[in-house]
Amino acid sequence: MTTPMLTKNQSLVFDVLTKAEAPLSAYTILDKLRDQGFRAPLQVYRALDKLLEYGVVHRLESINSFVACAHPNEDCHSHGLVAFAICESCGQVIEFHDHEVDHRLMDWLKSQKFKAEKSTIEIRGHCANCAA
Amino acid sequence: MTTPMLTKNQSLVFDVLTKAEAPLSAYTILDKLRDQGFRAPLQVYRALDKLLEYGVVHRLESINSFVACAHPNEDCHSHGLVAFAICESCGQVIEFHDHEVDHRLMDWLKSQKFKAEKSTIEIRGHCANCAA
DNA sequence: TTGCACACGTTATAGCATAACGCAATTGAT
DNA sequence: ATCAATTGCGTTATGCTATAACGTGTGCAA
């Protein structure tokens, strides 16, 4: 998918996520945008829905947060599954794509005649810097 | 880990999950246990915490729900990562363990010097019965 | 110009999870 | 025996996450 022009709200939310060094919750984004006129959660969630649809933002299900895609110029939908390593100390996220893992999972799903639509692969732990 | 004797509350919660045909949210479990004297969410969450710790229950992060482990006699901690295929129509969950996927992910994590602690692999879509 | 699609704003509400308090039972070391 | 530590439990209150439902304005195509 090619990313359309972003609306004002979408741009604001995307900028906040791009500048952040760690994933942000929707409510944290809201707080960061109060000065630009944001007042309600829906303003954030609606922008996020679109950004997710465009593939420029990822949702981290295990921590109810959102990050900008680490591969801005590629198409996240085209390189298959995305995996995340999430540091529980510093919050940093490493994004990663692997065709081997993809294929293996897809083969299994196929053997079960399961039609995959969305996937979540998240590993929580400690990054190189934070691991004592 | 060997599973210790379950307390009354833990047994009640575990039974509900075992009998369920689909994952249940904590609040759904609460409602099903009101007749046995459950009154507050914490009663459910505390039991769930222990059952998760013992490895007899899994949490599905992407749908905020819980399922009994599909491999009651094995030790879920010993066979590494667990993956789930979750049907968005009927709610059915297929649980699955694959060493290939494990190793591939673990190798990558190692290359990043990332110390993994918890993992989430969840695929949402439609099962064989529900896929039109 | 009418109808449609879409983004937006607002209020209210639903759904998920935990903090903080106190009590009771158990265990185990001294 | 007794004291301290641990664990489970019950309750109230609260906080965080997400969406429903309503109405407005704008742009564009038939």
TrEMBL record, chains A, B:
One of its GO terms (molecular function) is transcription cis-regulatory region binding. Binds 1 zinc ion per subunit. It comes from the Bacteria. Keywords: DNA-binding, Metal-binding, Repressor, Transcription, Transcription regulation, Zinc. GO terms for cellular component: cytosol. Zn(2+) binds at residues 87, 90, 127, 130. GO terms for biological process: negative regulation of DNA-templated transcription; regulation of secondary metabolite biosynthetic process. Belongs to the Fur family. PANTHER family: ZINC UPTAKE REGULATION PROTEIN. This is Fur family transcriptional regulator, zinc uptake regulator. It comes from Rhizobium multihospitium. The lineage of its organism: Bacteria, Pseudomonadati, Pseudomonadota, Alphaproteobacteria, Hyphomicrobiales.
